[in-house]
What does this fold into?
Amino acid sequence: MYEIKLHSNRLPMIHEIGHMTDIEGVYRHPDRNMDKVNVFFYVKQGAIHVFEDENEYRIQAGEYLFLKKNTPHWGADFYKPGTEWYYIHFYDDHPLDQAEEIQEFPHFNNSTVILDSVYSTQLTFPKSGSLSPKDYAERQLANILKAFESSYVFRTLQVCSLTYQFFIDLYSNSISERERSRSSRIIRQIIELLHQDKNKKLASKDIENALGMNYAYLSTLFRKQTGKSITAYKNELLIEQAIDIFKKSNKNITEVSNKLGFSNPYYFSRVFKRVTGVSPSVYLSQIYRN
It folds into this structure.
């Protein structure tokens, strides 16, 4: 499918951005192989017909397509008269395809403290799709183009940042569409159950009974979708509460451990460090307390 993948901690590096209209329908997509440049285009009016290697795409008004660098693509049919489109050409400087397996960005992550591991993930963009709401998306593209054409001394960084935000919106919309699937609905049910009473130590039987499904199946599905176990997610919720208590009171580590139902402060400290990357004593030395 020649998917476009970017590191979550790097901006797409813009090569060129433009807006074009083929009033008479005399153009078709160029025959080319851009060895360093990925392509994004969005059709505002009309339609564009493109082949990428053996894959054929007909992109209608309101739809977009990503084309991967170093992959031949060309147009067959001429554009419809009046076809209007935006395009973004961008570099990426990292060989993701040859790298070791990189985890997808954890979009189920609700942790208060953001670990550096979150920034070592990737974003896999949908190959094609539609922009919604259409008017808002087109205003975003017009603003990106305006920034690209400006004389602002930091326009390069501004354009890369605006484009990344636009791409994140596309990514977010694709996640929302996937979450309509049955498996994603089950994950949401588990998460809602865990959030209902953050202090309650839910046993596997409790989760089985609430969802009417085998816990082993639920656990496997949860890890596949979120990249973590149900227990790990529950521990994150408990540590979020610990952080909130630390910030809003003068309770010590033992008191917070007891309040949250941990078996002892040593186990609490291990879980706290696993979730946040630092021990509770180090964390307390770094924060403001009310």
